[in-house]
Design a protein that fits this description.
The complex is a heterodimer of chains A (about 210) and B (about 210). In chain A, about 65% of the residues lie in helices and about 5% in strands. Chain A is elongated. With about 210 residues, chain A is an all-alpha fold. The relative contact order of chain A is 0.09. Chain B is of the alpha+beta class and about 210 residues long. Chain B is about 25% helix and about 35% strand. In chain B, strands 2-9-8-4-6 form a five-stranded mixed β-sheet, with no helix packed on it. In chain B, strands 1-3-7-5 form a four-stranded mixed β-sheet, with no helix packed on it. In chain B, helix 1 crosses helix 2 and helix 1 runs parallel beside helix 3. Chain B is elongated, with a radius of gyration of 26 Å. The chains are: A mainly alpha (about 210), B alpha+beta (about 210). The interface between A and B is large, with 76 and 71 residues.
């Protein structure tokens, strides 16, 4: 038997369909495009060395997700770090005090939901969650993984994940209430949503 | 159900996991309690917004690059020298390198043989991200960060600039500055990072060389 029966082109053919989803998972975990690519790269290097095993793995995507998650946790333990938030001091559109740069961070139209909710505030709130809570709420509520899939990827039992998801959502509501995101205006929208909800219940009860 | 029951079952309700009897009881309470209606509405607003949290698309050429490098890196080779000022972690990736530097405003290393600079090898016209990591013992506000580039090497988004300055604050711990570098032609020289806080300045140097791939 040669060193490997799986050629590079076969490896690429097997892995390519999963790369975008792996990248999204890596991005949700790491929070930046550069770190996400770095993480996916580390995973592929590891997986390449085991490429003969790949064809025998029935559900490749969750398996790859698990390798990626473990790599992320290893990296986080070994090498905790925080991205610098910089304000350019010399680009033409920015004043010396950087106020314009701050203003330019106001959310664009695509970052506001139909009911006026500011997504960037939610992004900041998610960043304040613990790693365990952030992981489950991003994987489940943002990326659409089922709890059973998250169990395969993280090795955490579904019951624990469910409890973390519940607490993560509650914590997000707390943060967004405390920072004023759910203002009087948005509560008008909220009341409308609640009224719609109420009407559905009323109809179903009749 | 009371308000506490609603809090306890809200997540299950959002996921459609309440049985019909519980769902009816949930609805009855929601119809009667404005506070719980408000809580439910906020939870629904968040649930709708979560899938819309922004995500940057992968850098151009991501798929081909990571697949190619998987083979190239299966026997890991350090891409930067091991004598960085404060040690470093090398990632075996063509696009992303990480260089950890000594914490800001810590005393410079003294004595011993001169240490080689961290080294970044680039390929012309292939963007490469270099993560500079600054470890700080304490949080620092109003830090000025100046990056000076050698001839032929540019920062993505700053075409034609040999020097870029930012203001930043640093947290206690490790702070990363991702630099997306592009070499326009064969080049060699130093990237100089100058961190200034108050009257104190710390300078880091990284050797860079770019060749046609």
């Amino acid at each position: 038997m040669s060193v490997s029966n799986t050629s590079h082109s076969e490896f690429a053919q097997l892995l390519r369909p999963h790369l975008r989803r792996l990248y999204r998972l890596a991005y949700r975990l790491s929070g930046s495009a550069a770190d996400a690519e770095d993480l996916v790269q580390e995973v592929l290097v590891k997986v390449y060395e085991r490429r003969d095993e790949l064809t025998s793995i029935r559900a490749l995507e969750p398996w790859l997700g698990r390798v990626l998650y473990n790599q992320f946790v290893d990296n986080a333990r070994r090498y905790a770090r925080q991205r610098l938030r910089t304000v350019s001091l010399d680009s033409p559109e920015v004043g010396s005090a950087g106020e314009e740069a701050v203003a330019s961070r106001e959310p664009g139209p695509d970052k506001i939901t139909a009911d006026g909710f500011d997504i960037s505030k939610l992004n900041s709130a998610v960043a304040q969650l613990s790693l365990d809570h952030r992981t489950v709420v991003l994987m489940h509520d943002s990326e659409g993984y089922k709890l059973e899939e998250i169990q395969i990827i993280t090795g955490v039992p579904v019951g624990t994940l469910k409890s973390r998801l519940h607490r993560a959502r509650a914590r997000l509501r707390e943060i967004l209430t405390a920072d004023g995101t759910f203002s009087a205006d948005s509560s008008c929208n909220s009341v409308k949503a609640s009224e719609n909800e109420l009407q559905r219940y009323t109809r179903s009860a009749q | 159900m009371n308000c506490k029951d609603i809090q306890d079952r809200l997540s299950d309700f959002l996921d459609g996991e309440l049985g019909s009897a519980q769902s009816d009881a949930f609805g009855t309470h929601i119809a009667e309690c404005s506070d719980c209606r408000e809580t439910l509405s906020r939870a629904q607003t968040i649930a709708v917004a979560m899938p819309r949290l922004p995500i940057e698309p992968p850098p151009n050429g991501f798929e081909e690059r990571v697949l190619r490098q998987a083979a190239a890196c299966s026997t890991p080779k350090p891409r930067i020298s091991r004598a960085a000022i404060g040690g470093f972690v090398a990632a075996c990736a063509a696009s992303v390198l990480t260089i950890a530097l000594m914490g800001p405003f810590a005393p410079a290393p003294t004595g011993g043989a001169a240490q080689a600079l961290p080294f970044v090898a680039m390929t012309v016209d292939q963007p490469q991200t270099v993560n500079l990591v600054f470890a700080s013992n304490s949080a620092l506000e109003n830090v000025s960060l100046r990056i000076e580039l050698p001839e032929g090497v540019e920062l993505a988004g700053y075409a034609g600039r040999r020097e870029v300055v930012w203001r930043t604050s640093m947290l206690a711990g490790k702070n990363v500055l991702p630099l997306e570098l592009v070499a326009e032609g064969s080049a060699s020289g130093e990237i100089v990072a100058r961190l200034q806080h108050g009257d104190t300045e710390q300078i880091f140097r990284i050797s860079v060389s770019a060749a046609v791939g």
